[in-house]
Amino acid sequence: MGCSKNLVDSEKLMGQLRINNIEVTHQSDQPTDYVVINTCGFIKDAKEESIDTVLNFIEAKKSGLIEKIYVMGCLSERYLFDLKKEFPEVDGIYGVNNMEEIIHDIGANYKNELIGERVITTPQHFAYLKISEGCDRSCSFCAIPLIRGKHKSLPIEQLLDEARQLVDKGVKEIILIAQDLTYYGVDIYGSKQLPQLVEKLSQIKGIEWIRLHYAYPTQFPSEVLHLMNSLPNICHYIDIPLQHISDRILKSMRRGHTAETTKSLIQEFRNSVPDINIRTTLIVGYPGETESEFEELLQFVNESRFDRLGAFTYSHEENTHAFALKDDVDEDIKADRLNRLMELQEQISFEKNQEKVGLSLKVIIDRKEGQFYIGRTQFDSPEVDNEVIIKSTKKLKIGDFYQVKITYAEAFDLNAELV
Ligand code: SF4
Questions:
Q1: Is residue 241 one of the residues assigned to a domain?
Q2: Which of 34, 93, 195, 399 could be bridged to 68 by S-S, CB 3.0 to 4.6 A?
Q3: 164 inside domain
Q4: Distance (Å, whole) CA 122 – CA 18
Q5: Residue 114: pLDDT above 90?
Q6: Tens of pLDDT along 174-203?
Q7: Do 77 and 225 fall within a single domain?
């Protein structure tokens, strides 16, 4: 359940179990003996989805379809005792830092020397590399620091080893993830080391694309932009959640950036890397958000013309700073604002995609669907961004790169033919 950071935890658990000669599957509906549910506890919808999943497997256990259920991850980290009380049928409930315990309880041995060992569950040609855990920031709406704790960077050498292992398994695209990517290294090296890490990763033979997700908009390490221009395998792509643009709301959110600093950072991205594609995430319906503050957000999106944009309605999360505020924006108004924002973004995405018609672009092939191949450009991250639908009489290899010409564009997809 949940985000790519949770997925990496699952992959590492699977790696340890497989090393113990335990057969493991991922998201499979094949018959099985044990089920491990790696939950998400970030916001209301995600929590409900995790709880429903646990309930479904409890029913499966009651009907003798499975023997044991183990629950781990963010929801159980956040509500450990409640879940233990609610779900006595579950054989083991663990937080986010109990990998050794769950492996032991499943009847396997944790092998410390295999710390980076993973079972890749994504298509073999791309994988996520989690460079740190936790977060030192205190954004008012966010429960992640409560769940994942303080920021802990993984040592560069360990990450380079993990990346080499991924390349040995056929990975060509490495997607760097964290709660706060740009803070990498401050805790263990005393300064931001993301540029140094990216530069070292780019020297690993076989890595064709390095993609950056979850950057934070204050003290952004601009050297990263220079690396995008100087090194051939850093995608001209940046994912940077901005959450809002109204100064009053940004202050209440404890974000540490203002409308002015935000806009100048976006300008710096575009001045430094002219073809950079920017993905962002926004929240609508934050406590006290007025219609005019929402209009300000719409105008910001209209002016900034993000290439990719995701948005959420505000979720009132206990023990966060914002929980002390009144969740006074009606759910219908939240939903309406989300729709208006995504409608605007759909129009922007459509217009921006028209600019790509006629261009020749390098794509990686993710899969085949019927007579079409589905791929992505360097401007598209898996699962969240645009896809390129390629018509080809020639047989293409999944995971390989090809040059294509964009022939037609829709709001969220491009059509192309092989060059
Ligand atoms: S940067 Fe803010 S929103 Fe992101 S994980 Fe940290 S506290 Fe949460």
A1: yes
A2: 34
A3: yes
A4: 17
A5: no
A6: 999 999 999 999 999 999 999 999 999 999
A7: no
- Ligand 1 centre to CA of 142 (Å) is 6
Residue 173: strand pairing partners: 126, 209
CA–chain centroid gap for 226, Å, is 24
Final residue before a domain boundary, out of 334, 354, 374: 354
In whole angstroms, give the CA distance from residue 228 to residue 269: 11
Which residues sit opposite 403 in a β-bridge? 362
Residue 157, domain extent = 126-354
pLDDT value of position 116:
72
Q: Residue 111 has what pLDDT?
A: 86
Q: Does the residue 307 lie in any domain?
A: yes
Q: Which residues pair with 282 in a beta bridge?
A: 243, 311
Kindly state the tokens that stand for 356: 């790509």
Which tokens hold the place of 327? 């969740």
For the chain, the C-alpha Rg in angstroms (whole number) is: 22
**CA distances to 2, 125, 235, 373, 398 from 366, in Å:** 21, 8, 17, 8, 6
Could you tell me if residue 119 is inside a domain? no
pTM above 0.85, yes or no: yes
Question: 43 CA distance to ligand 1 centroid (A)?
Answer: 13
Closest residue to atom 4 of ligand 1, CA basis = 179
